[in-house]
Structure formats: C-alpha cells, structure tokens
Amino acid sequence: MSAQPRQAATVLLLRDGAPGLEVYLLRRTKGMPFAGGMTAYPGGGVDDRDGDIDIAWSGPSPDRWAAAFGCDERLARELVCAAVRETFEEAGVLLAGPPDGGPDDVVPDVSGDDWEAQRQALLSRELSLAELLAGRSLALRSDLLRPFAHWITPPVEPRRYDTKFFAAALPVGQEARHVSGEADEASWLTPSAALAEAWAGNRPMLPPTTHTLGQLERYPDVAAVLAGAPPEPLHPISPTFEETPDGRFAVLPDGSRVKLVVPLPS
Fold this sequence. Notes:
The protein has one domain (6-219): Nucleoside Triphosphate Pyrophosphohydrolase (Alpha-Beta Complex), CATH 3.90.79.10. Helices cover 26% and strands 26% of the residues.
C-alpha cells in the first residue's frame, strides 16, 4: 500500500535582478530524510495551526484559493498560511501588512533581533503564525501570492507530499536571508542559470523544481509571472518514471518528459 501524501506548500520567491528574473533557491543539507542535497524552494508541510480561523487575512479569501487548488476552504486556508509561515521560517521574508493597508503596505525589514526570536519560536512551534501576526497587529497578505503549480509525489515513493506551489514577489524593504537550518546554501539565480547547473550535474533537483524553473524561463520579470495566473483549478501532476538510452525521465500526465538529475526511486 502506498503512503498517504502529506499536504505541503512551497513558494517561488521572485525578484527582478540585474540579469533578469531571479528565484530564491535553497540547497537542502545532505542526510535529510527527504530531498537531502537537492536544490529546492522554501516550503514544507502544513502545520496543525495553519488553519487557525482567527488569523487576520487580507486579499483573496480561502474560497478563491480553494477554487485555484481544487480543495476545500479549510485546506486552502492551511496551505496559504503554510506558504507564508514557511517563507518566513526558511527565508526570513514575511508576506504580511496592516489589516487596513493598501496594496503596497507590506511590513518592511523583518531582520531585527525581535523578529528573529519570533521566527525561531515559529520553528519550534512555540508560536503560531496567527499569534505572531496578532501580536504585531498585522494581517496575512494572500494577495502577494499566486497559485503556480500542483505536484503529488508518485505512489512508488515511501515519503509522499501533495504540494501546492505559490509564486510571490520579494516585498520592498525586505531581504531574503540564509536562515534555514535545513539548507547549507541559499542563492538568487535566474531560472536558466539554475537549470544549466542542474543539467551539468552540479545542482541536483527533483522533477517539480526543474519543471517549474522551466516554466519561469518564459517570463521576463516578476510582474509577468504574477499576471500569468494559471487556469483553475490547477491540474495535479504525479509523474511516472522511465529509463531510456538518452537518460532517466519523469513522464508527466500530458506525455511530456522531464529529464532527471537524481536517481530513479528504487
């Protein structure tokens, strides 16, 4: 019997850099139980308190996210909260602002000692995202996120995730910081540069990462990514695997193939 996939959220954190559109990537430490040594985006599993209905919320409501991801409203709320929480935990970036603020009213620099203490409390689960935001009179800014992709780990894997991918722009006044204890490297790279390193064998990635980087390559800047909302609901991708004389591939539901830069599951 295959393992039941765990609900998870991951965020393609974006900025417009000198070479063009850049995405924030973490290289997970070797020896981790899932994707050790792989390059990935900030993200992780849904926490029990991510569905807290008391959280202040600004932007598209959970029912709109439910339509985007083809799930119920509670799960949609949990996924958006997990996306915001994980981005703060793993990149030191907080997608929040005043409850009655305008589109550009995002909390500025969140790198001070007091913020760092609260980030650590989130990591240890001593503090929930709802409690952090309430204590600072802030609201979660769901309008800063966009649905981007939906991947489900194939049944052949012993550790499975049902992962919703979000895109978000790095807020003005904030900087992504290498603070994740689960990563030994953090980099801003263009999608093309990241993929070039992957194909050269220098940056192993799982198929969802290489595929979404390929999707990002078509966009000239952050604004174009955020404007290019996919159709609703997103169709989940759960690949199968095949080995050919040309290499190993993940085969997607539409028949397209993604070359693997990691070994096939055994």
